[in-house]
Every structure is written in structure tokens, then in C-alpha cells.
Please model this.
Amino acid sequence: MADTAIDYAAVFQALPGMVALLTPELVYTDANEEFLRMSGRTREQVVGRYLFDVFPDNPTDPSANGMRYLAASLYRVVETGERDAMALQRYDVESAQRPGEWEERYWSPVNAPVLGPDGKVVLLIHKVEEVTELIRARERSPGDRTSVLEGELYSRARELQEVNERLREAHAHEREVALALQKAMLPAPNPIGHHRAAVRYQPATDTLNVCGDWYDLVDLSGVDRIGIAVGDVVGHGLAAACVMGKLRSALSAASLVADGPAQALDALGLYARSVDGAENTTAVQTCVDWDTHTITYSSAGHLPPALLCRDGKVVFLDQATDPPLGARPEHTPRPEATLGFTEGDMLVLYTDGLIERRDEDIDRSLARLADALTRHRRSTPEPLADALLLDLLPGGRATDDAALVIIRL
Model:
């Protein structure tokens, strides 16, 4: 059978339903014939214009809120890159034949993203089903059982949308508070001796998945030794930020007096048993010694740090891994390992939000990290940190928060 080219523009115009395309700024780029017919607008009145200039709220109705809800849904799609189905909306439309007169209309909208090659939203699909006649039929037959059920459904849908909007506002406020707390507890570190690390914290795009990750750098006893750690609390939000702060401070203090990273994590594990929400936290502690040119490390269920050698080879520090905090037998020492480094190598510590994907094996995720490190091996720590965020986070958007520390050895 010969290949037949598909005219997608014609398909779009023939779609059996009201469909329009919007830019992320909510400007119409196209609308199919059904959309124009049902909305009573011409193509010239719609394409190239801002959505709410074409369809503003009814100025004579002080309770009109269709514009607010629709805008919230569309901007949510732009922010998350995910489809959003709205509850049944009353959204009056000005009559095209009688300017100044507003027609009562009811709509059932669904908004979906079109993603570009970089994973960012480039267009919005705004699909609408007009159900005004259904609502009017119900009003004409108030005693009909079906009409009563339809009325109840409409009322409950509206109530549910109100509740969802209040929940989103509450979550957004919690996110702001949690991020402020996170920022206060994770400041850009000061140089330790003549060593400076590049650090990054990338909050998740999702309103809830923030503030469980941390990093820490501390000057250890000795001529030229520093401790570098990263960790990841299982929970999210404000509660996770509070737990994160406690564990970060405890590990920082323990690393100053412990005889090596394993002993510091042992002490942290004991402390974590008394902190609600600290169970199954992962963390890795490293000790960099410039006198002996060695890295000593221990991991509590965390992803392995990476050593980027000057020749581009990447070595993962995966020889001393044990279960997360609170998930291992007591009185059993944690493992600890040591490897050497060459001046000019770079040590990279990170949390899972930087590399993990729901649909891929962890070995593949680590391979992507190694490939990115090798490609950017000639970069200094600050540009390398920026390059890793761009390469490893699709469209620069994180589904989980991510912490990253890079130091030149």
C-alpha cells in the first residue's frame, strides 16, 4: 500500500468538537471550524489575539469566575506539562450579533500540553464541549429524576473545583514556606581553606515534591581535610524540610568528631531513630584528604558519588553501600572504603532527583550521568554544575528536588 501524506491541518479543522491552539502566553494560534461556529466568532476575531480579550468575563455578573478558573488551569498545564481536565464551567459569551448582550453558556473544558524537543510546553490544546442545551433542558424539566441528578452532578463538580483550588493555593503557600526554609538552611557554602565547591539545589516542579534533599561541607581536623555529604529525606514539603535540617546539622556535627564517614553515619542513624519522618533517609558522607590524595566514603542507601578523572574516565564510589537510615541491624558497623585521586580530578555528589527517571533502570541513569560528565570534563566546577542540570533534567524541569555538589580535587 502506497504511503499517503496526511494533511494534519485539514484533520484539525475537521475534528468533531471544539478545539483551539494557544501559546503559553494564552494567545490563539488556531481554532477549528467547530470552535468558531459554536463560539460565534470568525477566525479573524480569534487567531492572534489574547484568549481573555476574545472571551472576557461577563462584566454585568459580579459572580463570574470562568476566566479565573480557565486561566488557572491553562497556566497549570504550562507549569507542569501535564493535562488538566476542568469541572463543568459557566462562562457567559458576548453575542456576536448583539454586542453588549451576554449569553449564558456552560462548558466542559480539557487542556493539554504540546511539548517541544526540549521538553518545554510550546502549545496548549484547549478542547471544549458545550453543554448549555443539557443544562437548559434540566431547567425546563425540574421534576425529572434525570434532570435532578444532572443538577446534583453539576453542583458537586463546582464544589469539587472550589475545594481543589483552595488545596492548590494551600500547597503553593506551603511550597513557598518550605523553599524559604530550605534556602535558609542550604546557603552557598564559604570556601574551606583554598577549596571552593559548586553547589546547586533544584526544587521540583511539582508543588509537593520539594525540600527533602540537602548538601553539606565541613572543615575536618587535620592539615587539609574536608567532609562533603549529601542526603535525601523520603518525605516532601515543609515537614521534610524540617527533618532535613535536623539530619544535616546532626551529620555535620558527627563528622567533626567521628573516626571516619562510616562512624559519622552510624551516629546519624541512631539519631534518626528519634526523629519522626527520618526513616529510610539516604545519605553519603565523604572525607577528602589532600595530604594523602585519598577519598574515604560510606553510603547509607544513597546513589554513589562520581569521581571524574582528568582523562574523562568516571569512577563511581560504590564499594561501601549499606541500607538507609533506620533500615539496618544495630551493632553492625557500616562499611567504609578509600580510593586515591589525582590532582585535577573532580568529585561529584548528587541526589536521585538529578538522574532518576520512572521509566528507566538505575544503571541507565548512572550511565547518562557518566556520559554527561565525560562530555564536560574540561569544564570547571561552576559551569559543570550548570551543564549537568541542563543535560540531565528534561527541559530543566525536575520531578523530584535535586541537590548537587562538585569540587575540584
User: Anything to note?
Assistant: The first helix runs from residue 8 to 14. The chain has eleven helices and 19 strands. The first strand starts at residue 18 and ends at 22.
